[in-house]
Amino acid sequence: MVSFDDVQRLNLGYVLKPAEATGTGRPQVVPILAYFIAHPTGGVLFDAGVAPLDAETEAYYRPHRIALPEALEAVSRRLSDVRVVVPCHLHFDHVGDLGQLIGRPVVVQRAELDAAREPGYTVPGLAEDDGIAWEAIDGEEELMEGIRILPTPGHTAGHQSLVVRADEGTLVLAGQALETASDYSAAYLNWAVSASDE
User: Fold this and answer.
1) Which of 12, 126, 154, 163 would be 148's cystine partner, CB 3.0–4.6 Å?
2) Other CB atoms closer than 10 Å to residue 118's CB: what's the count?
């Protein structure tokens, strides 16, 4: 088992979502976070930062990147501590440092990996990159003792979260399950109403 202290948030920078993409008329700073879980059998990395982008997309999102080695060092960890990678989904802002993790399994939902093969979904060529040790799964899976992968479709059809059973209780790492708090509120209301009808 792990404790809450074994789950460490990593700051991998931010992107600046332009006003026309926020629905608010104002730009929005979107933090790029990841998590490192120090499990007794090896470290788990949940998400991997902002990928390099073409010049037009770079100008649109204006990313500020903090390299994964630097972010890990800030929590007294190293790249060599990472045993397995679990991205919540495969959009460009969750897969940036996968190239630094060659040889580690990258566990994704098969639906997400299939979507990543479609043009315009993510970084071109990501899903076909032979240097990445893709492990496609279908649905829930026990990653290691006390850590379970749970499909949480919402933001993407192949989105997944991590459920960590710790000494103090259960922690869910959800990544970007929904786009906004309003989306969450609407989804929760729909769930609550449908659950009360049963």
Assistant:
1) 163
2) 9
CB atoms near residue 108 (< 10 Å)? 27
pTM (2 d.p.): 0.89
DSSP secondary structure, the chain, as one string = -B-GGGEEEEEEEEEEE-HHHHSSSS-EEEEEEEEEEEETTEEEEE---PPP--HHHHHHH--EE--HHHHHHTTT--GGGEEEE--S--SGGG-TTGGGSTTSEEEEEHHHHHHHTSTTSSSTTSTT-TTSEEEEE-S-EEEETTEEEEE--SSSTT-EEEEEEETTEEEEE-SSSSSSHHHHHHHHHHHHHHHHT-
Distance CA 73, CA 69 (A): 6
Report the 10 Å Cβ neighbour count for 171.
17
Per-residue pLDDT band at 179 (split at 50, 70, 90):
low
Query: How far, in Å, CA of 67 to CA of 97, rounded?
Result: 8
- Which pair of structure tokens corresponds to residue 167? 């000494």
State the Cα–Cα distance between residues 161 and 157, nearest whole angstrom.
12
Span 95-126, pLDDT tens digits: 999 989 999 999 999 999 999 999 999 999 99
